[in-house]
Every structure is written in C-alpha cells, then in structure tokens.
Amino acid sequence: MSSSIGRLFVVTTFGESHGPGVGVVVDGMPPGIAVDPAVIQRELDRRRPGQSALTTQRQEGDKVEVLSGLFEGVSLGTPIAMLVRNTDARSQDYEALREVFRPGHADYSTQQKYGVRDHRGGGRSSGRETVGRVAAGALAKTALATVGVRIVGGTVQVKDVKAMRRDWDEVEKNPVRCPDAQAATRMAEVIEAARAAQDSVGGVVEILASGVPAGWGDPTMAKLDALLGAAMLSIPATKGVEIGGGFGMAELTGSQTNDVFDGETFRTNFSGGIAGGISNGAEVVVRVAVRPATSIGKPQTAAKQGGGTTTVEIKGRHDPCICPRVVPVAESMMALTLMDAWLRQRALRGREK
Amino acid sequence: MSSSIGRLFVVTTFGESHGPGVGVVVDGMPPGIAVDPAVIQRELDRRRPGQSALTTQRQEGDKVEVLSGLFEGVSLGTPIAMLVRNTDARSQDYEALREVFRPGHADYSTQQKYGVRDHRGGGRSSGRETVGRVAAGALAKTALATVGVRIVGGTVQVKDVKAMRRDWDEVEKNPVRCPDAQAATRMAEVIEAARAAQDSVGGVVEILASGVPAGWGDPTMAKLDALLGAAMLSIPATKGVEIGGGFGMAELTGSQTNDVFDGETFRTNFSGGIAGGISNGAEVVVRVAVRPATSIGKPQTAAKQGGGTTTVEIKGRHDPCICPRVVPVAESMMALTLMDAWLRQRALRGREK
Amino acid sequence: MSSSIGRLFVVTTFGESHGPGVGVVVDGMPPGIAVDPAVIQRELDRRRPGQSALTTQRQEGDKVEVLSGLFEGVSLGTPIAMLVRNTDARSQDYEALREVFRPGHADYSTQQKYGVRDHRGGGRSSGRETVGRVAAGALAKTALATVGVRIVGGTVQVKDVKAMRRDWDEVEKNPVRCPDAQAATRMAEVIEAARAAQDSVGGVVEILASGVPAGWGDPTMAKLDALLGAAMLSIPATKGVEIGGGFGMAELTGSQTNDVFDGETFRTNFSGGIAGGISNGAEVVVRVAVRPATSIGKPQTAAKQGGGTTTVEIKGRHDPCICPRVVPVAESMMALTLMDAWLRQRALRGREK
Amino acid sequence: MSSSIGRLFVVTTFGESHGPGVGVVVDGMPPGIAVDPAVIQRELDRRRPGQSALTTQRQEGDKVEVLSGLFEGVSLGTPIAMLVRNTDARSQDYEALREVFRPGHADYSTQQKYGVRDHRGGGRSSGRETVGRVAAGALAKTALATVGVRIVGGTVQVKDVKAMRRDWDEVEKNPVRCPDAQAATRMAEVIEAARAAQDSVGGVVEILASGVPAGWGDPTMAKLDALLGAAMLSIPATKGVEIGGGFGMAELTGSQTNDVFDGETFRTNFSGGIAGGISNGAEVVVRVAVRPATSIGKPQTAAKQGGGTTTVEIKGRHDPCICPRVVPVAESMMALTLMDAWLRQRALRGREK
C-alpha cells in the first residue's frame, strides 16, 4: 500500500539502493498500446547517475528488463513488471555509517519507524528508488501521447539563478536541463562551485502538460491539484509544490487571478489548468521546490545510534544539485497522475468498445 | 473513491452546497475514545459563515447531528456519520447563473467532466463541502490528543502583510486568525478594503503539529509530505503547499539546511519535522497558499454554456478573504493525515510509540 | 475502509441497529442517469421487516431520504447519501442482554474486537445494516439497466425443500420469494413450523444476472467470482457461495463441465457465466448458503461477559427464516459487484465522450 | 489494482505463463521478522509441476530470487519482491491455438476483455500465476507463526471419494495431499483413471487455521468470511467456497447450528471460527470447490476467433486433477487473508492480542 501510487494506474516500486535491484510493477496499463522498450531505456538514461559532469560520478548502466505485460510489441493490459539490477553499489563506503544518523537524511526517522534498517545508503529513501517511477512514467507518457497529451519539464531555478524563459526544446541541450540557455550557464557555475565547496544547492523544477482535455480530476478529496501535490512531494528531497499562480497568488486579488475565459481560451492561467480540482483545458503547470542534496562532503555533526554524536564527512560520489535528475522523475510523476485521472474519467463517462 | 481521503482513517464527504445537506462518514475511528459532540460543534462554529465581520454574512447554523458510531459517550470503532442540514441556501440568487461559467470557478470544468451540474452555487466544489472535513477533523484531533499530538494553525499572510511572530494563543482573539496581533490589524484593513472594492485577496495559512513521535509516514509513495500535500491541496482555493523550509530552501545550501541533530533535538527544522517522508520528532510545519476568493462583485467577462460571453457581477454574500475560515479546515486536514499515519504505524509495529 | 465495498462504485454503509438511523454513501454513480427515488423505496420495501406473515413482525417504515447527488431527477456523478431513520427499536428488550453473549451471534467476537459494543441488538452485525446495501443496489440496478443488465433472484431451498424450477416471474407472488410456486407452499410450511417451535431454518438463495457482456472482471485477484464471493459472504448469516456448477463440479469430469461454445452460445453453463474470472456472455449464476437465523426463542446456554454461563430465550420478534429477506440484499450485492466491474472495464477500454 | 489483494498486507502478482517470468511484490510485511528463503523455496516446491506422478510432467525448477526487502536475514518492513523465471515454456505447443478458444478456458473472455492476448497458454489466467501467491504465502505463514497461528490443508474430496478423517500429518505423505491415507489411495486411482481417459476430475480442498485469536475481521463489508471467500475464489478453477457448516447448514435449524459457548470453548463450530464476520477464537475452517481441469486430451469442439468451430485435442502435459497443487495455494490465500486481518486489528487497537 505504502509503496504504491494511483488508483487505476497503480504503480508499485520495490528495491533498496544497495540490494539486488530496484524495480516497479505497473498495473492498469490499457491493452493494445504499442510500447517500445527503447523508449523506457531512454527515459532511464535521463535519470541515471554519471550522465554529465554535473551529476554524481557513480556509474550504473541501469539497463531495464521488462518481465511481463508486453507481447509482440503491445501492452496486454496486464501488470508490466520492470527490473533494473544494482551494479555499482560500493557498500563498503557505508560500513562506517552503520550506527550514524546522517544530518538531513532519513536515517534516524527510518530507524525509529522500523526498528531495523539497511544502513548502506538510503535504502528505500534513496533517490535510486525513482528508477521504477521513471520506467513507469515512460509507459504513462506513451499511453497519454495516444490522446495528444505531452509533458515537458526543466530546472527553472538553482539557488538564486532563475530561468527567465521557457524554451522547452533547450532542456536536453544543457546539463542543468534548464529551458533558458543563458541561465543554464550560470546555474552550472553555481553547481560547480557547490561541488568544489563540498556542499550542495537547491532549486526549483517546473513541469508542464499540454493537451489535457477539460474534465480530468475530481472536485473534492481527489482534486487534480491534490494528486499532483502528492505525486511531486513523494519525490525524494522535494519540500514544496505549487500549481499555476501558486504562492504568488497570496499577494494578488481575485480580479487579477480569476482567469477570464471566452469559451475557447483562457486569458491567464493562474489556475494552472485546474479549476475546482478538475482540468479546464489550459496547460497544467506545476513547480516543485527541491532542497539542497543532503549528502555533502563538508564535516557535519551527526547523532550516533547508541547515543552521543560524531563528525561525518560523506565521501561517496554525490550530486551537488539534484534538479537535473529530478526533472525526468517529476515529469514521470506528472504522467502517472494524469494517466490515473484519465482512466478515472473513462470509468465515469467512457463508453465501452 | 474520489470523495474519500485516508487509507485506515477513511473520511468520505457528501452533499451539494444547495442540496438537502452536507455530511461525512468517518470509518476507522478507534473504539473506546471519549467523544464530546460539543467539541465537534465548536470546530464547526469556527468554520461557519457569519462568524465575524470579515466573513460572508450568510447565516447557517450548521448544527451537526451524529448519526452513528457513538454509544454512551465513546466511539464504537464503527463508522461515525455526521449530517449538517443546509438552511440558508438562496437558490434563486443563482438562477441567472444556470448557463454561465463564472471566471475562476469550477463551473466550466465541472460541466465538461460530468455533462450535468447543479448550477446553484459550487455544488461539490463549494467551500461548504468542508463542513464534513471539519467534523471529521474534530474526531481526529480528539483521538490524537490521547497520544499527546496537538495541532494549531493561523493566517500568516494576507496579500503583502505577513505575520512576524507565531503566538498561537493569539489566533482566536482576532477575526483574521493571525498569530501576530499587530499584523492581524493590518490584515483586517486589507480585507475590508478588498470587500469595499468588491474584490478579494489571497494569503497563506500555516499549520503546526507538536507531539508527533518519530516514525509516522512512509519512505516512498506515501511520504508524510506527500499525504499532507494532497490533504492541503484538496482544500478549495489552495494552490500551493510547502513543508518546513519549503520553496525558501531552493536558495540555500546543504550545509545550511541539513538539520543538525544531537540525538535529542534538532538545531534547525528545515525538514518541517519530516525526513525521508517519515516524522523525525520535530514539529510538523506546513504552509498553504490560498488564492483570492473567486466570487467577487466586480463585473467580469464570463463564457456562456451555449457559446459567447456575458458580464457577471456575483452579488451573493461572499468572503473577501477565505484564510480565516481555511484555518480550521487546514488544521482538520493535518489531523486527518496524522491520524491515518498513526494507525498505519500501529499496523506496522503493533504497538503505539 | 472496512465498511466499504467496491473500487470505482464505492458503497459505504453506516449505522447501528439501535442508533439514530442507518444509511449509505454511494460514490461513483455515473452522471446523467435518471433516478426515481420511488424505485429505491420499492426495493427497501422488499427488504423491510413486517412485510409478510413469514418475516419478523417488527414494523419499521424504512422511509429513505436522499441527501445528495441527485438534481432535477438525474444523478450528478457525485456521492449519493441516503438515510433511513430507526423508529421501532425496542431497546429495553435488550437490557437483559448487556452482559450476555448470545449463541451464534457476533456478541462475543465483537466484544473481543472492539473492547466496547452497543449491546442493543447486533449493532453493525445486525441485518439492519443491509438497508444501505439495498438502497445502493437500487441505484446500481438502475444504472445497469441502461446497458441491458437485469438481475433476478429467489429462495431455491429451505431446509430440505428445493425449488425444481426457475420461474422468476413467480418470485414476488409468494412470501418465500421462491421461483417455484409448488415448492414455495411447502417451504412456507417448513418456516411456519420452525416459528411454532421457536426455532429457525436455513436455506439457499440464487441470484442470476442476464445481459452481462463478455469482458467484465479480471483474471487474477479481482476475478468476478472472487468479487461476487466477497459480496455475498459479506451478507449477514451467509456461510457459502458457489458460481455456476459450484460444489457439484467436484464430482464431475472435465469433458462434462467444459462448456462447449460455438462462438455465439454455450451449450452448458458450468462456469456460471465467468471463465478465468472474466464474464463470458452467459448468464451469471450465484447461489448463497444461508444459515438458520441465530435469534431463536428456544432456551439456550450462553456465556456471560464476566465469566460463567446463563440461559437465554431471545424473545424479540425475529425471522424464522431469513431467505425471503436475503433475496433483495443478495440481488443488490450482485448489482454492486457488476456495477464496479462495468466501470472498471470502461476504465480499461472505454473511450471518452 | 486488479492484480493485488489485501489492504495492509498487499500482494501483487505479475507475469504471464509463457513470458520471461512470474513474480510478486509483497508490501506490508512487518519489519524485524526472521525470514529464511529456503522456507519460501520449500513452499514453491509443493506447488511446482512435476513433483509427483499425479501432476503434470512439465518440469520447472521454479527457483525463487528475492529481490528486495530482506537484509541480514530479517524483513526490513519494505516491499519484498520475488521472481521466478519461466524455463520450460514450450510455446510452440500453443501456436496451433493462436485463434482457437479452448472450451472452459479463459481464452474467449480474455480476448473480449482486452482485445489482445498472449495465446501461449493461459497468460495471467494460468495456474502459473499462483507462484507469486505461494511465495507471498510463505512470508505470511512465517509472520503468523510468530503469534501462534498455524495453517494446514488438504484434498478432502476427489470426484465421489471423500476423506473421512482429518489427519493433517498425513497430508505430505501421499501425492493427493489427502488427510486420510485410505481415501488417498482411492483418490489416486480415480485421478490415474482420468489421466488414462485423457480427461480430468474435480474435488474439494479444505484449509484450517488454528491459533487465530478472537477479534480479527470486520462486521460488514470486510467480514473475514467475505475476504476468505474472495481469496479462495481468486484461485484458478475454483467455483465455490464455504465456511464452517457451509451449504450443509441450509438443511439444519438454529438450535442445531448456534455454536454453544461456555466462555472458553465452543461445543460445535458451524460458524467455522467466524461470528458476524469476526474471528471468535475457534478454528477457522474453509472448503473450496475445485472444478475439473479444463485442459484435457479428449477431442472437443472449440470456437475459432474469426468465427466457426474446430476440434481441439489439448496435447500439452497437464494435471488430471489439480487439487494436490491447489492445496499450497489455498493455504497461502488463507495466510494472506489472516495476515491482513491481523494487521488491521493492530491498527484498530494498537497492540497485539
């Protein structure tokens, strides 16, 4: 239960960062959709470590194996299980951490929750768990594309550097995944400086879905805003989410933020494509606050399991800014959420074939 | 499904704003807990319209009737259904709106979703749906109090006026429900000015839970952050949520935001009491962005159902700023979320911590 | 959670037998379906006590009030809450039973589960809880009828008297609700004899759905057989369920029970309309074993809450055979199950409007 | 969703019979429980084909790989994923069946449901899907054993041969898995005769759980009877289930079947250990009707996908009676159901009883 998201497009991840592997089961993929495993791999390559100078230098091939649910190139409508083996897990790097609670990490809360934990890295709290999300997201994107929904995303802020434009074609051309080429250069400098200082920096990621028809989502507990909020805040290291005008609307008036609609288009999009929890046909826009990575090389005071404190210097190979790698994950979470909302709308209004 | 929240403490609301009534079924209340119906009523009184000069002047007594689940003063462990009749629904106010999609409202998206709607007010999208949430929240607060969890909240921003202190005892002493008495006065002025201008203003609400033990929440899809995010963004008119340091952390470094812990207390609380999705024993802190109320008196261009546009002036009695009334609702959503996390931790470990 | 059934057509009942009332929330009714409240009442009248000489003589009008989800004669697609007040609850009849665990009843198991209970009648275990199921079933039947699904049912066995024919038009013409008029007469005699002896008798109820298209249900955990099994065994006093050939197939061979199919019709229906968990287009046939009512007037030994035993004679007004009243409940559970399977198939294959 | 069972102990299977492999994800295993992978393998060996002369002669090693959730010999409280590769899939045996709907099989209903199918064997409808259930069941049995719950089961009927005793230690000593050694011999003869005739026979399997404390299960929709019913009827080829007295109680009276209780023990167990949906402390007893295997060698008329009929002789290596192999699967489903009920009771009351 606690490892699943979605009600009709149910995505369940499994695997510890330093166990045999990580993976996912996707239950609810509609049948008859052409699925190219190379597309899944391509999305995983966007997430994997070692892809650029800005990310961690750990090398994991992250080759995906599809274990079920596809037959002769199309989805069967049955669960699609996918597995990625762990290969570059230097577990010995972690032996010194067996009884240390690293600052900002989930070590202490995990120990308190379970009474037992795999101290080698973050276990389930590790960013590695998102491998399964991205693989599932590739399926969702494939299915959504059949009805014209397209999802893009990028890093729009790193520390105090903000993207001033949204040129989504630019995103894959720079290692920060920023939709503003000029800002990207400065963001990269900020990230490199953080790495040099054995520190890390935070940022903001923005995700946008176009082609979403009006009518997806629900009016109360399952508002599309709420489901997107849960999806985004389930990504490791995220601590905030806003839709459309978001926190900025706190400072405005109703006459400014009521999106005027002429029956075809909206003059503004403060609602971020969602009115009363239900998509209204405008672009769905979400921004996610990403905290600075908690794994840093600088010496830090840390509590020890038996009591007392020690000093830790986390010497593993880590990301000084995780935003570039959060982008494909957040896109995936957008895709999973929309996929689920789409299927629910089909249940509500769909006609049988 | 779409009207329920929670997995073990399942809260399902029902009712349209202009139908016979609104209510809630709470399934999962542990047995043997002393419940005072007057406490439920008191919470509803904090939410109801007409409670102060700053809120809408609609008068609804909002008297709650408990239909099941209590016996001789204690919970039976069975579903607790509660009903509040609608009494002051001036449906005729809405007849002119039968075929108009009000700007910023859910009218259009609702029509596209269902193909039919109750045009008299917001139906399920109305703030009136939150009556059931607050009644359920009173139960959750009662149960959580038995293990020392206490929830407080207040309005911390209205337009550009921000609370500079957090004196939670101050909240019920001013109509804005602001924990800073001085800021409250200025906030009230801003709200009155908006009402005079037939406009509305946005704001930010902050909710805090103390006494939450370490170990509640889950490490992946059901992170406590994620569930709180969904809970808050399911409240009408909310468009953003942040936990602990939130969006502010985007501009900081890991060495600043890694909350140093000595085994007993945290030096900072950028994590907002949640590390890796699991409570860490610090206070749980959430802020919610509230958009300006969409019902305003100013003339606005609106699309018509058959095509074309018209001008609407929403002449009903509405809130110029909904933050004061969002406070008890957001407290309730915090309570529902923590209640669910608590029960799930009991299932996992078999004893209370 | 534990009071709900269904995943897309979610039915949640509430209410104790001797509290203010009993009711139900139906979440997932598709919008735009014409619903006549008189039809709901008619179904409740088939379930209510006092309807014939064979049933309990308790008199409860069981008038239903629809609290939400309907507007101008059609469903809104929002939760439909329905309430029936309890009126004829002679609670004083039960005071002597405050600390007695009646044999066969749920008194002891309920006390062990919750540590507290409403001793006045069965509380949630009472047959009265099925009021909400029947009200929900009326909605499901109405919706299913729009796609040609029709559900009938009847008592096919009382003690050793078995119906030899299935004339479904006969059912409402005799108080046993037996589809065989001749058997009905003998069944009535058996039931009257049980009443005279202050005892009760068991029986079997059969439910049949026609017009179910091939393709509803799922191949593994959510087999249509499994969901029907759960639905039927959630009815009070049921202790067995079989689909199609059921237990009789244990004695046969594959060459006898493999339903030969020519592409249009099945020569036999041992599968009961469900192959591999998925409807195959034949009639869906379910039989339910109903135990003798546990409330009997005969003196019985009963355990006492503090320890020791006593003798009880349950002098309330009870049903000597509950099969006639189980029929509308079991029909309803068939309808709820098919409704849910239909919506799930729409999610899987449906096209949006 | 449709491939999962359980609400707190969530078991999701994946895999087609002729794809790369089959497996399961178990989400909700409590942390800190010692798990021996050899125990999982031993249970799978009881289920696998080729284990005796009475079962199919297909040879699949069915070696399980645990992919996650265990660390240093104990459960982490995180998802436990397990994979068994398919090795002996003679897919070419099935090429002739690409457009044939085998009688009694799910071929036709599957095609109607999904519009596409893996024609090589039963896909998800195959008995091979139960590999994951048995692996999950081994975990559940291990956890339940820590609180004294023990599950046994056996074949109690094959065609018209019935077990007259319940000597559970006998079960693993004969290939029929019958708790009555004498009956086992006659059952084996019946099965061999069916194989010689290229036919198959049905039977009944009985499962018993001892040590279940009073208080597990729920009073309405989630009655323990209902959840067991769903669990059992989700096993391929099952078409009936009964608890305790089951269908036999239809012929009895209340004074016969009301289990007299003296506060410590029950004189009879017609309730099968469950009163009002909640365990009462007596042994939980369930019987499952198993239809004759649908794969038989005898020539049969079969519909073709494009229209028209043909004659099929299913020449694969199949089980003439699947009861012996259903036993470990049904035990597993009992274990999964009790595990879930146990965790739910822990959530409700916060401590183990």
Description of the structure:
The structure is a homotetramer of 353-residue chains. Chain A is α+β, with helices and mostly antiparallel strands and 353 residues long. Chain A has seven helices and 17 strands. In chain A, the strands form five sheets. In chain A, strands 1-2-3-7-4 form a five-stranded antiparallel beta sheet, covered by helices on one side. The longest helix of chain A has 27 residues, at 323-349. Chain A is globular, with a radius of gyration of 21 Å. The two termini of chain A are 31 Å apart. Chains in contact: A-B, A-C, A-D, B-C, B-D, C-D. At the A-B interface, strand 1, helix 2, helix 5, strand 12 and helix 6 of A face strand 1, helix 2, helix 5, strand 12 and helix 6 of B. Strand 12 of chain C pairs antiparallel with strand 12 (238-243) of chain D, so a sheet runs across the interface.
**Helices and strands of chain A, in N-to-C order?**
EEEHEEEEEHHEEHEHEHEEEEEH
Assembly annotation: homotetramer
Q: What is the alpha-carbon Rg of chain A in Å?
A: 21 Å
Distance between the termini of chain A: 31 Å
- Unreliable stretches of chain A, pLDDT < 50, 5 or more residues? none
Helix content of chain A: 25-40%
The biggest sheet of chain A, with number of strands, parallel, antiparallel or mixed sense and barrel status, is:
5 strands, antiparallel
Largest Cβ-defined interface = A-B, 116 and 117 residues
Q: Can you list the strand order of the major beta sheet of chain A?
A: 1-2-3-7-4
Shape, principal axes of CA atoms of chain A: globular
Number of alpha- plus pi-helical segments of chain A: 7
Strand content of chain A: 15-25%
Coarse structural class of chain A: alpha+beta
Q: Please state the average pLDDT score of chain A.
A: 94
The number of E-state strands of chain A comes to 17
